[in-house]
Amino acid sequence: MNDSYTTAIVAFMGIYMIVALLIAIFTIVCMWKVFTKAGQPGWASLIPFYNIYVTFEIAWGNGLLFLLMLIPVANFVVQIILYVKLSQSFGYSAAFAIGLIFLPIIFLPILAFGNSSYIGPQ
Questions:
Q1: pTM confidence score
Q2: C or N terminus of the chain, fewer CB within 10 Å?
Q3: Which residues, in sequence order, are CB contacts of 91 under 8 Å at separation 6+?
Protein backbone atom coordinates (compact mmCIF):
# COMPACT_ATOMS: atom_id res chain seq x y z
CA MET A 1 0.00 0.00 0.00
CA ASN A 2 1.02 3.50 -0.69
CA ASP A 3 1.36 6.12 2.07
CA SER A 4 -1.33 8.27 0.46
CA TYR A 5 -3.80 5.37 0.58
CA THR A 6 -3.02 4.78 4.23
CA THR A 7 -3.48 8.46 5.01
CA ALA A 8 -6.80 8.51 3.16
CA ILE A 9 -8.06 5.44 5.01
CA VAL A 10 -7.02 6.83 8.40
CA ALA A 11 -8.67 10.18 7.60
CA PHE A 12 -11.87 8.44 6.49
CA MET A 13 -11.97 6.29 9.63
CA GLY A 14 -11.37 9.34 11.81
CA ILE A 15 -14.24 11.24 10.20
CA TYR A 16 -16.45 8.16 10.43
CA MET A 17 -15.73 7.77 14.15
CA ILE A 18 -16.45 11.45 14.84
CA VAL A 19 -19.79 11.27 12.98
CA ALA A 20 -20.73 8.04 14.79
CA LEU A 21 -19.87 9.63 18.15
CA LEU A 22 -21.96 12.72 17.39
CA ILE A 23 -24.94 10.56 16.39
CA ALA A 24 -24.58 8.51 19.60
CA ILE A 25 -24.46 11.65 21.75
CA PHE A 26 -27.48 13.10 19.94
CA THR A 27 -29.42 9.87 20.49
CA ILE A 28 -28.55 9.86 24.20
CA VAL A 29 -29.73 13.48 24.53
CA CYS A 30 -33.00 12.61 22.79
CA MET A 31 -33.58 9.56 24.98
CA TRP A 32 -32.76 11.64 28.08
CA LYS A 33 -35.50 14.09 27.09
CA VAL A 34 -37.99 11.27 26.33
CA PHE A 35 -37.29 9.72 29.73
CA THR A 36 -37.80 13.01 31.57
CA LYS A 37 -41.04 13.65 29.67
CA ALA A 38 -42.27 10.28 30.88
CA GLY A 39 -41.35 11.01 34.49
CA GLN A 40 -38.31 8.74 34.56
CA PRO A 41 -34.77 9.80 35.47
CA GLY A 42 -32.88 11.13 32.45
CA TRP A 43 -29.60 9.57 33.55
CA ALA A 44 -31.15 6.16 32.85
CA SER A 45 -30.46 6.74 29.16
CA LEU A 46 -26.74 6.41 29.91
CA ILE A 47 -26.76 2.91 31.43
CA PRO A 48 -26.82 -0.08 29.08
CA PHE A 49 -29.69 -2.55 29.57
CA TYR A 50 -31.26 -0.29 32.19
CA ASN A 51 -32.20 2.18 29.46
CA ILE A 52 -34.01 -0.63 27.63
CA TYR A 53 -35.76 -1.57 30.88
CA VAL A 54 -36.93 2.03 31.36
CA THR A 55 -38.06 2.26 27.73
CA PHE A 56 -40.20 -0.85 28.21
CA GLU A 57 -41.54 0.61 31.44
CA ILE A 58 -42.55 3.78 29.60
CA ALA A 59 -44.13 1.99 26.65
CA TRP A 60 -45.55 -1.21 28.15
CA GLY A 61 -45.86 -0.37 31.84
CA ASN A 62 -43.76 -3.43 32.73
CA GLY A 63 -40.02 -3.10 32.47
CA LEU A 64 -39.30 -6.80 32.86
CA LEU A 65 -40.68 -7.42 29.39
CA PHE A 66 -37.30 -6.21 28.12
CA LEU A 67 -36.13 -9.78 28.66
CA LEU A 68 -38.03 -10.60 25.46
CA MET A 69 -35.28 -8.73 23.64
CA LEU A 70 -32.89 -11.55 24.58
CA ILE A 71 -34.78 -14.08 22.44
CA PRO A 72 -33.17 -14.37 19.01
CA VAL A 73 -35.38 -13.49 16.02
CA ALA A 74 -38.30 -12.60 18.31
CA ASN A 75 -36.43 -9.48 19.39
CA PHE A 76 -37.09 -7.89 15.98
CA VAL A 77 -40.84 -8.30 16.46
CA VAL A 78 -40.65 -7.10 20.06
CA GLN A 79 -38.66 -4.01 18.95
CA ILE A 80 -41.33 -3.12 16.39
CA ILE A 81 -44.09 -3.54 18.96
CA LEU A 82 -42.04 -1.45 21.41
CA TYR A 83 -41.86 1.44 18.91
CA VAL A 84 -45.60 1.22 18.25
CA LYS A 85 -46.38 1.26 21.97
CA LEU A 86 -43.87 4.05 22.61
CA SER A 87 -45.46 6.26 19.97
CA GLN A 88 -48.93 5.50 21.36
CA SER A 89 -47.83 6.32 24.90
CA PHE A 90 -46.99 9.83 23.68
CA GLY A 91 -50.23 10.20 21.70
CA TYR A 92 -48.86 9.47 18.23
CA SER A 93 -50.32 7.03 15.69
CA ALA A 94 -48.88 3.86 14.20
CA ALA A 95 -47.64 5.93 11.25
CA PHE A 96 -45.29 7.74 13.64
CA ALA A 97 -44.12 4.33 14.87
CA ILE A 98 -43.18 3.42 11.29
CA GLY A 99 -41.09 6.58 11.24
CA LEU A 100 -39.42 5.54 14.51
CA ILE A 101 -38.62 2.15 13.03
CA PHE A 102 -37.15 3.30 9.73
CA LEU A 103 -35.89 6.84 10.48
CA PRO A 104 -35.17 7.05 14.21
CA ILE A 105 -32.63 9.87 13.73
CA ILE A 106 -35.53 12.07 12.57
CA PHE A 107 -38.49 10.82 14.59
CA LEU A 108 -36.77 10.40 17.96
CA PRO A 109 -35.99 14.15 18.19
CA ILE A 110 -39.61 14.88 17.23
CA LEU A 111 -40.70 12.68 20.12
CA ALA A 112 -38.17 14.24 22.47
CA PHE A 113 -38.38 17.92 21.61
CA GLY A 114 -41.89 18.13 20.17
CA ASN A 115 -44.89 19.37 22.09
CA SER A 116 -46.23 15.89 22.82
CA SER A 117 -46.82 14.83 26.39
CA TYR A 118 -46.67 11.44 28.02
CA ILE A 119 -50.08 9.86 28.45
CA GLY A 120 -48.97 6.45 29.68
CA PRO A 121 -48.97 2.92 28.30
CA GLN A 122 -51.85 2.13 25.97
A1: 0.86
A2: N
A3: 116, 117, 119
